[in-house]
Design goal:
two-stranded antiparallel sheet; 108 residues; 2 strands; mainly alpha
Length: 108
């Protein structure tokens, strides 16, 4: 059987052993990853190049490139928005951990 099949079965085995709060947390994370972070938009780059140029054949053979045609594309707003959301989530998680640590370890 394929590698992806074994990974899927392993994930099912782990999820089946989880408690209800853990399953809810996983579903929230999957929702964030699927909806907030534009996962389907980040899977492949569909942008068309603004500028295209040709690299000499000698350089492409040296670098092992197929064709010497390259292009420059504009920045992707979805990517930067997803990075900003991840950063905001990480800041909130860090804030909660630091507040809990301060309250239970530093104050007493």
């Amino acid at each position: 059987k394929s590698y992806s099949y074994h990974i899927m079965m392993y994930d099912r085995m782990i999820v089946s052993k989880m408690t209800l709060p853990e399953k809810k947390l996983i579903s929230i994370c999957k929702w964030i990853g699927g909806n907030v972070l534009f996962s389907e938009l980040l899977e492949s780059d569909q942008r068309s190049p603004l500028i295209t140029f040709q690299i000499p054949e000698l350089i492409t053979k040296f670098l092992g490139m197929g064709s010497g045609k390259l292009g420059v594309v504009a920045p992707s707003i979805q990517f930067w928005l997803a990075i900003a959301v991840i950063l905001a989530i990480w800041i909130l998680v860090s804030l909660v951990i630091s507040l809990v640590s301060y309250h239970f370890f530093i104050l007493p």
